[in-house]
Amino acid sequence: MELVTMVSKTEEAQVNRLENQVDNGGGGAWEYLCLVRKLKLRRSDKVLKHGLSILNDPTKRSSLGPEEWTLYEQVAIAAMDCQCLDVAKDCIKVLQKKFPESKRVGRLEAMLLEAKGLWAEAEKAYSSLLEDNPLDQVIHKRRAAMAKAQGHLLGAIEWLNKYLEIFMADHDAWRELAEIYVSLQMYKQAAFCYEELILSQPTNPLYHLAYADVLYTLGGLENLQTAKKYYASAIDLTGGKNTRALYGICLCTFGIGQLTKGRNKDDKETSELQSLAVTALEKDYKQTAPGNLSLLSSTLRSLKLSS
Amino acid sequence: MGLGFVVGVLGVLILSHAAYSTIQYRSLLKITEEEFSGPPMNVVVELILGLGFCMWAALTVPGKFRSIVPYSDDNRVVSLPANMDFMIFNHRGKAFPLDVDMKLK
């Protein structure tokens, strides 16, 4: 199982600074590419541009040592993502020459077929790769992705469910499944997936937030109350720096108020939480976007949360 | 770094001196045939100073502490990684081709 990668605030700032530096010709392209790979970011256009500039410079390329091949792979995938299929083909050809028997290169070739839209051929390539190694997780995932790329979302769900029966601990797959369910408005199923994700990574505020969003969308008094609790835990884990969670608290309070029409038992606690959220929002807007403060107050007024 | 290291070395030296003084004091007690009632004042002072210096050096020399609170900038998750295993190429980026001169030489 691979390591859990999450992009923290510091790392985000670091990668943006490096990207800026590389874009302005300040050097550090290789560090940037390593960081993008480590954090699993999808910045294909930049990776393609800066990766090619390294690969096309023989001295720079040979100074990488064995990392050179990793870079070929990274650039090949980025090129497919940018529809620069010639570049992808050339990169894969180089890798094929170096590692003639490699399954990993075989996977890249199949992905190139996908990028060309030759679904049947890609499927054939993946099945033959699976025959050699039936438990190759990445290939199982590619099949689900392929169904999604062709627009068969239900097919993708089916592949993912089959996959998750075997590899239950794969949180990336759970997340993909959750996102597909949300896009199909199957919120109950999506909520189940987010529960799994919260169980596997309880300290990640973004899963709490997504779960709360799904519950809020489902509606109903009980769901709104649970959603509010999860928004509150997202606030707890982010130290109140997540605006969406703060808004979530406000909207849940409003929704609960609408549904109960004043017959609220735990009124005091509710009003306290909501007024804290409103204060935090106002403070945040004053600091970062003073121009939009009037917009915020009119929104809150329409939610009857402030006078 | 330099200052912390010097202070650390000084602390270790003071501690070793305290040990040396203790040994000397014990042999002095044997010669004068007195009972041991407690360590001499200079050893106690040296021990306290040595402890302080060594502790300060140990806390500053190896580097900065990393935060353990979940909402510090080091730990706060602001975005999830792109789910690269499920990446699809059939997206609207197709309609916006990049510069044509990209080529692997």
From TrEMBL, chain A:
<protein>
    <submittedName>
        <fullName>ER membrane protein complex subunit 2</fullName>
    </submittedName>
</protein>
UniProtKB/TrEMBL annotation, chain B:
<keyword id="KW-1133">Transmembrane helix</keyword>
<dbReference type="GO" id="GO:0022890">
    <property type="term" value="F:inorganic cation transmembrane transporter activity"/>
</dbReference>
<keyword id="KW-0472">Membrane</keyword>
<keyword id="KW-0256">Endoplasmic reticulum</keyword>
<comment type="subunit">
    <text>Component of the ER membrane protein complex (EMC).</text>
</comment>
<dbReference type="GO" id="GO:0005886">
    <property type="term" value="C:plasma membrane"/>
</dbReference>
<comment type="similarity">
    <text>Belongs to the membrane magnesium transporter (TC 1.A.67) family.</text>
</comment>
<dbReference type="GO" id="GO:0072546">
    <property type="term" value="C:EMC complex"/>
</dbReference>
<dbReference type="Pfam" id="PF10270">
    <property type="entry name" value="MMgT"/>
</dbReference>
<dbReference type="InterPro" id="IPR018937">
    <property type="entry name" value="MMgT"/>
</dbReference>
<dbReference type="GO" id="GO:0005769">
    <property type="term" value="C:early endosome"/>
</dbReference>
<protein>
    <recommendedName>
        <fullName>Membrane magnesium transporter</fullName>
    </recommendedName>
</protein>
<keyword id="KW-0812">Transmembrane</keyword>
<dbReference type="GO" id="GO:0005794">
    <property type="term" value="C:Golgi apparatus"/>
</dbReference>
<feature type="transmembrane region" description="Helical">
    <location>
        <begin position="42"/>
        <end position="61"/>
    </location>
</feature>
